[in-house]
Amino acid sequence: MACLLLSCAAHAPALTETYVVQRGDSLWEIADQFSMSVTELKRSNGLRSHHIYPGQRLLIRSEGRSTRSSSGVEYVVRRGDSLSKIAARFSMSVTELKRINGLRSNQIYPGQKLRTRAYVAQQARTRPSLSHVEMDYVVRRGDSLSKIAARFSMSVTELKRSNGIRSDRIYVGQRLKIRTRLQKIAMDNGPYYFSRPKAAVQRSRGYREVPPKKPIEDYRNAQNLMGVFNANITMRRDSRSQTLRGWRIVLDPGHGGRDPGAIVSNLDGNNRSVYVVEDEFVYDIALRLYQKLRLAGAEVEMTVISPNHLIRENNPPARTFVHEQNEVYNDVSVNRRNSFSVRPGLHNIVQRVKIANRFFARRGKTLFISLHADNTPTRPKGPLVIYWSRRGKIDSRSRSFARIMERALDLPDVPAQIGGRNLAVLRGNLAQAEILVEIRNVHDKGEAWALRSHKIRDSDADRILRGILNYAKRY
Ligand SMILES: [Zn+2]
Q1: Which of 156, 271, 337, 348 stands 20 to 30 A from 357 (CA)?
Q2: What are the DSSP calls for 130-145, one per residue?
Q3: Which listed CATH number (1.10.3720.10, 3.10.350.10, 3.40.250.10, 3.40.109.10) goes with 128-186?
């Protein structure tokens, strides 16, 4: 198999494709997206200046050809390649590249096959492609064609046509083909829906992308996305493992919108600076936790939602998430005011509590968790769980939730901590117990690195889930 792919690779001509310049693109970004240098990109298009315009067609040439194999990616060395060039292309260090190929010197020759890491520069080359999301849906009690169509942003006609149905009658257990209008954009720091960030990575601490749409439009797109996400989860639910049935849980992704939270510098595999934006990474953990909690039978609500992304697997982790200011509060009335100021920010923290409390209108088994990753030089690395306290007054139920969570997050090498604070997001909260979790202290370089890995984000979400399950067993 590998041999076959390699022989293809050896005879394949250099790949060329065209890319149509989008508004807001820069040569730097396009080059980066297709793993080329700006010089290469300019040369292959005969450009003299850095000036490009929307609609312009650029020739993208990828000089080497990589193929996937079970043990990673094999790369065939071409004339002009050097170890450092190849290493850079695959976001590796030269040392690592030499080590996994057992090379002693820096000498390589055209035609030589090199093993590279499993994530693929090829991916970075693929142009963002728009596609529909397709899936099977099993009809449940109470469903109607119009309900299902609405849930997936389809028309009833479309739904009937794509399933060859003539009448409006459907039955429980029937399998329907769903083809939503959600446009999925595949990127290696994605996937994204409807729109993608302009930049492929967060390039500086101050970089931000101002949302082009009104808050109400972003809210509708975000609702649409959450609808499809929910329908997917509902289909995967297993009625035998509903340990959190009856629990209502609000997840509060700590920042978003105007407020990115902490932004710290970190290094990629080539010792180049990358930046980690708290709100973008924490939102991803929140969505993972949301899914796990709903699969366990809980009803879950988010205070902040995003119009263009669900769970994101950034591969390689060097493809950081960009500070997009497009997140909105999960409340239609807030977003009807057409102003940038209604987006989440430090000035409207109380909105988070309002959204939660509306969801908690029915008292009982309710929990509130605000999710963060702080940047605190004075604190050791590891998670911190905060409950409400002020001048010796303590919310004792929240403190016991915090203690249980602390134990669930505790690792031998990275111990968890606990503390009481008078935080606005924990004040006046109607939940039975409410806590704030700083899942990692990104002041520590290793912790910021860990946040960039989607596998570690997933295990972080698992640890928080463990804390919730342990609390739910007790109360
Ligand atoms: Zn924070």
Answers
A1: 337
A2: EEEEEEEEE--TT--H
A3: 3.10.350.10
* Residue 439 Cα to ligand 1 middle (Å): 10
Indicate if the pLDDT at residue 149 is higher than 60: yes
pLDDT of residue 125: 36
Q: What is the CATH number of domain 197-474?
A: 3.40.630.40
Spans of all domains in the chain: 2-125, 128-186, 197-474
Beta strands in 226-374 (DSSP E): 248-253, 263-267, 273-277, 299-302, 304-305, 328-329, 366-372
**Given the structure tokens 């950034």, which residue do they identify?**
314
Q: Note the pLDDT tens digit of each residue in 168-219.
A: 999 999 999 887 767 778 888 888 988 899 988 898 999 999 999 999 999 9
Domain pair 2-125 / 197-474, same fold: no
What is the distance in A from the centroid of ligand 1 to the CA of 208? 17
Going from the Cα of 369 to the center of ligand 1, the distance in angstroms, rounded, reads 13
Token pair of 440 as six digits: 């990692």
33 Cα–ligand 1 center, Å: 29
Number of neighbours of residue 144 by Cβ within 10 angstroms: 13
Nearest to residue 130, comparing CAs of 80, 178, 180? 180
Tell me: domain 2-125, CATH 3.10.350.10, correct? yes
CA of 200 to the centre of ligand 1 (A): 23
Q: What is the pTM of this model?
A: 0.70
Ligand 1 centroid – CA 384 distance (Å)? 11
